[in-house]
Design brief:
The complex is a heteropentamer of chains A (392), B (657), C (145), D (315) and E (320). Chain A is of the alpha/beta class. Chain A has 17 helices and 8 strands. In chain A, α14 links the parallel β5 and β6. Chain E contains 11 helices and 9 strands. Classes of the chains: A alpha/beta (392), B alpha/beta (657), C alpha/beta (145), D alpha/beta (315), E alpha/beta (320). The interface between B and C is large, with 53 and 48 residues.
Amino acid sequence: MPTTSELMKFAAPMLEMAQTVVEAKGEELKLCYQCGTCTSVCPWGNLKDFNPRKLIEMIRLGFEGFEDDSWKCVNCKLCWDKCPNQINIPQIFQSVRSILLAWNACPPELNIALTSLRDEGNPWQESKEKRDEWTKDFPVPAYEQGTEYLLFSCCTNDYDPRNKKDIKAVVEILNMAKVNYGYIGNKEVCCGDIALSAGENEGYGMLSNKNLEIFRELAVKKILTISPHCLNAFKNRYEFNEGEEVQSSHLVQTYAKLIEDKVLEPKGEIKNKVTYHDPCYLGRHNDIYDEPRFIINSIPGIEFVEMNNIRENSFCCGGGGGGCWLETVKGERLGDLRVLEAVETGAEVIITACPYCVQMLEASILGLGIDEKIKVRTVSELLLSSLKNEEL
Amino acid sequence: MAASKIKKVGVFVCHCGVNISSVVNIEKVVEAVSKLPEVTVARDYKFMCSTPGQELIGKEIKEQGLERVIVAACSPLLHEETFRRVLVKSDLNQYFFQMVNIREQDAWVTADKDKATQKAIALISAAVKRVQTHEPLPKREVDVDPNVLVIGGGIAGIEASLQIADAGHKVYLVEKQASVGGHMAQFDKTFPTLDCAACILTPKMNSVGFHPNIDLMTYSEVVDISGYIGNFEVTVRKNPKYVDYEKCTGCGVCMEKCPSKVSSEFDEGLVERKAIYTLFPQAVPNKPVIDAKNCTYLTKEKCGVCQKVCEAGAINYEDKEELVKVKVGSIILATGYTFAKPDVLKDYGYGKLDNVLTALEFERLNNAAGPTDGEITLKDGSKPQSVAILHCIGSRDKNYNEYCSKVCCMYSLKFAHLVREKTGAEVFEFYIDIRSPGKAYEEFYTRIREEDVHLIRGKVAQVTDVPVTDDEKGKLVVIGENTLTAQRVRVPVDMVILSTGIESNKDAADMSRLVKVATDKDGFFIERHPKMAPIETASAGIFIAGTCAGPRDIPETVASAQGASSLALKLISKGKVEIEAATAWIVEELCAGCKLCISMCPYKAIEFDEKKKISVINEVLCKGCGTCAATCPSGAAKARHFKDEQIFDEIEGVLSL
Amino acid sequence: MSEEPRIVAFLCNWCSYTGADLAGTSRIKYSHNVRIIRVMCSGRIGMSFILKALSKGADGVLICGCHPGDCHYQEGNDKALRRYIMLKNMITQFGIEPERIRLEWVSASEGDRFAKIADEFTEQIKKLGPLNWKESESVVKGSAV
Amino acid sequence: MEKVGVFIETKDKEMKMSILGVITGVRGEGFELYAFVLDGNAESYKDSLQEYGINKVVDLSADSPTAEYDPEVYAKAIVDACKGLDIKIIAGVNSAIGKDILPRVAAELNAACILDCVSVNLAEKTVVKSNYSGKTIAKVRLSGEYFVYGIRPNAITAEPAPVTAEVIAHKAPVQDEGRLVIKEVKAGTSKGVDLTEAEIIISGGRAMGSKDNYKILFDCAEVLGAAVGASRASVDADYAPQSIQVGQTGKTVSPNIYIACGISGAIQHLAGMKTSKVIVAINKDPDAPIFTKCDYGIVGDLFKIVPELTEALKR
Amino acid sequence: MSKLNIGAYWAASCGGCDIAVLDIHEKILKVNEACNFYLWPIAMDFKYEDVEKLEDNFLDLMLFNGAVRNSENEKLAKLLRAKSKLLVAFGSCAHTGGIPALANFYKKDDLLRRVYVETESTSNPDKILPQPKTEVKEGVVEIPEFYDRVFSLAQVVDVDYFVPGCPPNPERIWEVLEAVVTGAELPPKGSVIGATDKSLCDECEREKSEDKKIKGFSRIDKVMVDPKTCFLDQGLICLGPVTRGGCGQKCIKGSNMPCRGCYGLPPDIQDQGAQMISSLAALIDSKDPEEIDKIVKEVPDLAGYFYRFSMAGSFLEGSK
C-alpha cells in the first residue's frame, strides 16, 4: 500500500512552491478558478502552445515543468485586464521568475542583460561612462535644480544606434517648443523595469534607489519619459516618499499639449499611409491611447489606418517582460504577427512610441524580409519630419 | 460619578467542550474573576448552553441573589437569546445580562494559551464593570394593521399576493409596468421540466387580476413609506395610463390603428409595438396604456386616432398622475431583477456582430408568442448550423459582477436542448463549472449530454468575425481554451448566445432608501440573517421575496414568496408585535433642542416637539443604532444598553489587563 | 509583563463583529492584543470612546464598520468615517500619531480580512511603540464636571 | 616532482586545440604533466601533446565503454586515475565539456573547483579568475589536498616546449550506473573553427541575400583561418544555422578581428560582439548603425569587397 | 446671624473673574451687609502667614478663580481648602483649566523658551530662564516651581461647587452669593452652579434646521453672518451645542459671534472636544474620504478650537 505522502506526489508533489510564490508577492495565484481566459487572450496563443492557466495550476500544486515557460510572459497585461478574478498574472510570473533567479535558473541571454544592469546600470553591456556619448556633437541642455522637466532618456535610446535617432528627434522638438527641460546624462541609470519584470528584485531596488537619489538631489518635480517602461516604473512602481510629488508623463502627452496649444504646428505634409501600434506599457498599463492618435491626425497629408487589435486590445510586440533580451526562434515571434497585421492595413509606416517596440518590430520586419514594404518610426520622428518638412 | 451600591454579579465560564478550555485556562480565569469585588460567584461548566448549564445559572441566581449575570462562552450572536431566557425564567430582567465572547474572539483566534487566558480575564472584567449600570428594559408591543403591500408584480409578487389574499386579507399589489407577469412572462420553457412558462404563469396572473382581496395597481410606483412594523403608511403614484379602465373593454382596436411604432421592450427590441399598447397579448389587466413619450397626440397634439376609434370612449388624453395613500401592517418586496447588459462586454461583439444574442433575446426568439413564432433563426432568416452558448457573461467576473448568477447554467443547458430540438444545429457550450444543484437539475444536465451537446470547459475570451482559416470565413469565431485538454480553441459558429447574469434593478438604491432596507454591494437587498432569517430584513415588517435579494430560480422565488406571505400572515394573526427594546431615548432635562439628532437619524424616528422645544424619539421607529447618542452634543440622547458610561466601563475593563 | 501593545477595537454588530466571529470559526489566528468592544453600529462610536481608550492606556484604537453602502442602519458608517477623519486631523495636536487610530471596513464574510487588519495594526502599533498616556498625577482627581 | 593531470577534450577523434594553452599554463619547473585521454586514441595525440610538454599520456578507459560521452563515467575514471597515479592537481579547458566534467571530478575528490581561470600559478597555489563575465578579476589562493582548475580557452597563448612523452594505460573499474542516458547527440552544423574560440570572425547579415551567397564568407574564412558568424536576421532567413548566430540572443564573441558584412548593427547584435578587439564593417548603407561602432568601415557592396579580400589574402 | 466670612483668590488667571464679582454692581453692598470679605488679593493686601493663621474651616465661602499652574497655586489651593467650608471653583480656569490650560499642548521647556527667549520683544541674549532658586547678593530668591502642565482646581483639591464661565455671568454670581448669604438649601456637593443643565442651544433663539449638512467650514470674517440662523447651518463652528447654558448669550446675541464654550461641558458630556467632533463631523455632506479630509482641514486649529476652555479637564488633558 502506498502511503499518503507517496500518493500526494501525484496530487500535489511540492506544495511549498505555491507558498514560495505567494510569499514573493504572487498571492493572487490562489484566486484562479481555471477558466482559461488568460490562455485565450494571451498573444502567445497565436503562435504556440503557451498556457498561463495551466502554469498557474502547476505552480499551485507544485508540479515541475513551469520553469521554461515562465520566461515567456511579455507583461502585456491583456490577461490581467480580462481575468474575471482580476488576477495580476504578470506579477505571478514575475514572482516565479524571482524564485527561478534565486535558483540560478535564468535564461543565459537574459542573465547577461541583468548582469549588465547591476554593473553598468544599463541592460546593453555598455559602459556607464558612455551613456551621454551621443550628446558629444549634439548638445542637450543639462538638468539643473529648477529646470522644469527632467528628460529621462532610457538606456535603449542612449546606447542603441537606431534609437539614438529617436532621442535626437525628441531633443530637436523640445528645443523648437522651447520646453524647459534638461538631461542628466551619466547620472541616469536604467529605470529597472526589466529587472523587476525579470524577477530581479534586488537589481531593481538598486537601480530605483539610485534614480530616486538623483531625483531627490536635484529636487525633480516633473519627469518626461521617452520609454513607456520608464513611465510605468516611475508612475506605478517607484516608492516615492509621502509628500514627494513627482509627476511623470510620456512625451506623447507633452506633444499633444504643445500641438493643442499651437506651440508646435506640424505643417509639413507627410504623404504616407501609417498605422499606430499601441505599446502595452503606454496603453494598457497607463491608459494613454488618444494622444498619439491625436498627434498623428494633426499632421497634414497623412493617411491614418488602424489595425484590428488596437487600444485596450493591442497586440504586444514581444519586447516587454525581458522579451527584448530573450531568444525566440523564428516563427515564435509576436512582433512578426504584429508587423503582418500592420502590413494588412496597407500602411507603409508603423508609428509607435516605445524603444522596445521599435526594436522588436524592426527586427521582425528584417526577419520577415519586408523592409522594402514597411518601416517603423516613432511619434517623435514622425512629428519632427513634419515640423522640418522632411520626408519620413 | 456618585458611587452606587455594588450589584451582585455572577460569572459563568463555559468550556464549550474543549473548544475554549483547550486554549483558555478556565481554572485561572475563574480564580481571577472571583477576586473582583463585584463578583459574588464565578462558576465554570462544560457546556453552559446545555440544560444542566442553564439550570446551574438559574440555581445560582436564586441562591446567591444575583443581580447581574455574565456568561463567558461563544459569540452573543449565537447564544445571547438562550441565556437571556434563563434570566427571564429566574425573574431577572433579560438586560441584566452580558455575554463575553471567549470562543470566536479568543480561544479560536489566539495561538498563545497564556495570552488567551489573559484576554479572557480582561474581557470578563470589562463585562463585570459594564453590567453594573445595566438597566431593566421592558418588552414593547404595538397593534398590527392587517393589510399588506406587495411591491412588484412578477411571479414572486403574484404568488405572495395570492397567498395573503386567499387567506382573506387585503393586498395592495403595485407594479411599475402595465401588466403583471415580470420576466417569467418573457420566457418560453422552464428548466428542468421544460413546461411552458405561460401555461403555469397565466392562470396565476388572471387570479391576481380578478381577486376580490387584491387591489392591483399597475403602471404605478411606491413613492413614500413612513411608519413602522404593523403601521406603515404608503404613498403610491399611479402614472397616467390615458385609458379609462372602467370604460375600456380591451377590444384592441386602438392598438391596431395607432400609427406610431416603437421598439418593444417586452420583446427585447426584436420587434415593434405601438404607442398605445398592452405589454403582451395575455397581459393582466388586458387593457392598453398610452406611452406618453411616443404618442404623437400627447407630444405634438396631432393624430388622436385611438380616441376616434374607441367606441367605449375610454381614451382620456387629460389623464393625470394620482397619489394614493394606503395603510398596511407589512410590506413584501418583490421588485425582481434585470439581466446584465452585455454591451459593456465589447469582447463578445454584442451590438456589433449580427447573431450575437443575449439570453433574454434568445428567450423571445424561441418563444412561440415571440417575434419569429418560436423559430430559431439567424438574422437573415436562415437556420443556424452551429450555435455557441457562452456561460458566465457578466457573472463570476470581478470586472462586472463577482457573484454567480445561479440560473444561467441551467437555462443555458435548456437553450442547448431547444436549439438541438428545433434546428439540429451543433451546440458548443463553454462553461467554467456546471452548477446544477436543484431537484432534477443534475438529471437534466445528464440528459443534455446525451443530446450530443459539445460541452467545453473554459471561459470564452472573445467572439470575432475576423477569420484566420477558410472555415472561419463568414462565421462568428468563438475563442477560448478547452481547459481540460489545455488547448486554445477557435470554434466557428453561426449564432452566439450570451448567458447573461442576473443583476439588481438599476433603481435598487432608490427603493432601498424608500423601504430602509440596505442593499449589498451588488444592489441586492440584505436579509436579516443570510441563513436563519433569509426573508426578513433589518427593517421589521418588511419581507423580501424572489430575486430582489439575489439570483434565484423560479422554485426558489415562489418558495420565498410563500415564505414572505406566511411571515406577513403571522404578523396579522398575532395582531401585536414586539419591537426593539434597546432603543434610544432623549432625556428631556438635557435636550437643548439643537436638532442635530434629527438630521442624523436614518429612520426619521426623531421628531421635534415644538412646544417643549426638544427632540423626541419615536421608539417604535427606532432601531437602536445609537447614531443619535453619538451625535447628541449635550448628552441628552442615550442609547439603551449601549450608554456612554457602559462603554467607558467596558473600555477600562478591557484595558485592565 | 512584556510591553505588549494594547489595542481596543470597536466593532459594529452586523458586519464587523460577525466578521470577527468568522475569523474565529475559521480558526484564523491573529494578534491577541486586540480587544473587541461591540456596538450596534459604527455610527454609535463617539470620539470620546477613542480618547477615553487612549487615556486609559490603549496604544491604538481600531474602528470597524460595514463597507460603504452596506451599513445595516443605512449610513452609520459614513458618519463614523467623517468623525474618524476629523479626529485623526485633531489628534496630532496632542502629539499622538494619527496611525494609532484606524478605521477599516470589514464585512461579515471577511474573517480573514479582520484577522489581517488586526495583525497589521498590531504591527503598526508595535512600530510606533507604547503610547503610555499619563493621566494627571494630581493629588485629588475629583469630579471636575 | 608534483604531478599535474590535464583532461584532454576530444571530439570526433580530434583534440581540442585550446587544451594546448592549458598545458602551457600548468607546466613548469618541478611539475610532471599527465594527459588524460578518454576516447581511446591516446597514441594519436601523443605527438602534439609532447610538443607542448606532456610527460605521460594516460590512455584512460573504464569498465563501461566510454566511446560515447558520459560525464559521470569520465569523471569517475579521472578520479580513479588520479588516485592510482597520485595526481593531486587536475586541469582542463573551461569549455562546455570541461564545465561538465571538472566539477564532477572535484565533487568526487571533495576538492575546490575553480572555473573561469585566466592564469594559474601552481607553485603559489593561486589562480586568477574572472567573475561576472569578466567584470571583475579575482586572485584566489587554494588550500586542500586536491586542486581542480578550469582554464578559459585562449586565455593563455599556447607555446611549444617539446619533451618526450610515453603512453601509459589505465583501466578504471568504473561502471556506468545508468543515471545518465545519452539519448541523442545533436551535431551543430557549423564547420571549421569554433566561433567562441576563433581569433577572427567574419559575419554576414541579411544582406547576404541567400544561403548560397554565404559561400563567399566561408571562402574568405578559410583563407583567414576565421570562423563564420551570422546576424539574427540572416539566421531567420535560413541563410545560416542558428548555431553561428552572434548577439545578445546568440553567442557572445570577442575575437581579435570581427568583420561584419552587411550587418546593420542592431544593439542586440552589437551586444554579442562589441568586445572584439578590432571591428571592421562592410555595408552599402552609410547610415547603418554599425558604422558608429566599428574601427574600420567600408561603405560598399560586400559581394564585391569580400571576394576581393579573399583573393588578396590568397596572394 | 453673624456675618459670613468669605474670600476670593486668583491663581493662574487673568483677573477677569474678580472683575466680574464687581459687575454685580450695587448688589455688592448687599453682599457686604451679610459678609466679611476676609481675603481678596485683588482688592486688598494679605500675606501667606495671615492665611496660615486662620483656623480650619474659618471661611464660609471661598471663590477660587484661576487654574493651577505652579507650586504656589497648588500650595494656596490646599491651604484655602483647609481654611474653607465651601470651596468654589470659580470661572473657567478653575473649572476646567480655561485658557491657561491651552498651554498643555506644549512642553514646559518650550513654553519657557518661547516666553523668556524667543518672543519678538524679548532681549535675553544669555537665554536665562527662571529658576526656582537664584542666588543674589542679598541672599537666595525663591520663586514658585512652574509645573509641566496646568491643572483644574478639582485636579488638585476637593471642590464643593463649580461656577463656570469666562468670566461667570454677574447675574449668576449674584444667585450663588445670594443662596449662600440667605442660607438657602444648596445643591449636592460637586454640582455646577450658576449654569443650566441644558446646552446653550436651549436658550439660543436662532433658527435651526432639521437637516444640517456641512459642505465646508467658514470663518466669521469671511461671511456675512445671519443673526437669525444657527451658526452651524452657516458653516460656522459654534460650541454652543456642547456648552452649558446660563451665560446669557453675550457672544451669540450680543455680538453675533458663535459660542466658544467657556461655560464648560453639559452634565452628561465628558469630553468637550471629542463630543464636538462626534456631533459636527457627522454633519459633513460627503462620503469621499479625500473630500471630507479637505473640508476638515479648513479648520486650522481643531484642538484649540474645541478645547479652548476645557483642556485640563478633558480625557487627554494635554499633549503627550
